[in-house]
Structure to design on (291 residues):
């Protein structure tokens, strides 16, 4: 099973909504902490969690729910360096309005906070918003690097983009399901990320894959077909037939998709019972997906 590069400080987990990004990102972070890495798991403005403060979860593992307002105030304080003046500046109603209303500022300060945390931890796992919103964060950083041709914003955005483009510092990990729509969206997301960072191609995890049955003879009849379109009998008569056909179909899709993307070996996480995060984290550790 392929592993995530041990030199990567930032691991962005992205994908279509509902594919299990949050579960996978948390499970990867827990597996990393078990390996002894000082690890931060980051979510982005989750309304169900406290914002803007690191919380210890287990040994070697912390969680931070990033909040744009807190991140903006931290950035101002970092640049002005005089606490009283920085506080006046960040709490000015006009500055607060601009921070909320200016296109891209919201995304930029969140991504900047993520980038800054890499200096405090061995590994940072980021649960990005669903496909379009996640891409907007990277696009905003590119836009600001071009808009400001000098000064601290230009310097910082250029440094951020350099980090995100370096495969030894950053991993872009796409989570998908072995189904038509998630696979199609994963393909589009991969193409966008390659456009942003051509020297740092994304990697993949296929989540909630239906497990293969133990007996190979169950698949002999299906293996004689080149594709699902050749199946003679689409109506399934039992739960066992359903399990065999679904398993074969999903692994067929994974094999074809892997060939299209040039992935030699796909990371696969099977369907699991509750507690899901604990089981997935244990599975990731056993399969040595985190090195």
């Amino acid at each position: 099973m392929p592993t995530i590069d041990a030199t990567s400080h930032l691991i962005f987990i992205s994908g279509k909504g509902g594919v299990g990004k949050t579960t996978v990102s948390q499970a990867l972070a827990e597996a990393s902490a078990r390996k002894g890495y000082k690890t931060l798991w980051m979510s982005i403005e989750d309304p169900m969690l406290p914002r803007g403060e690191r919380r210890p979860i287990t040994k070697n593992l912390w969680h931070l729910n990033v909040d744009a307002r807190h991140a903006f105030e931290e950035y101002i304080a970092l640049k002005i360096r005089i606490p009283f003046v920085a506080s006046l500046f960040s709490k000015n109603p006009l500055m607060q309005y601009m921070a909320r209303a200016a296109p891209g500022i919201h995304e930029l300060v969140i991504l900047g906070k993520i980038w800054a945390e890499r200096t405090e931890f061995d590994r940072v796992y980021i649960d990005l918003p669903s496909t379009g919103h996640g891409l907007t964060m990277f696009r905003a950083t590119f836009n600001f690097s071009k808009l400001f041709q000098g000064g601290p914003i230009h310097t910082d955005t250029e440094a951020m983009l350099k980090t995100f483009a370096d495969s030894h510092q950053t991993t872009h990990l796409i989570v998908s399901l072995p189904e038509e729509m998630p696979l199609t969206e994963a393909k589009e997301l991969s193409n966008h990320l390659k456009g942003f960072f051509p020297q740092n191609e994304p990697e993949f995890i296929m989540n909630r894959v239906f497990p293969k049955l133990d007996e190979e003879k169950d698949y002999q009849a299906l293996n004689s077909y080149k594709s699902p379109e050749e199946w003679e009998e689409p109506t399934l008569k039992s739960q066992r037939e359903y399990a065999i056909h679904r398993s074969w179909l999903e692994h067929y899709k994974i094999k074809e998709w892997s060939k299209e993307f040039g992935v030699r070996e796909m990371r696969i996480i099977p369907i699991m019972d509750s507690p899901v995060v604990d089981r997935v984290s244990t599975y990731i550790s056993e399969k040595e997906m985190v090195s």
User: Anything to note?
Assistant: The chain has a mean pLDDT of 83.
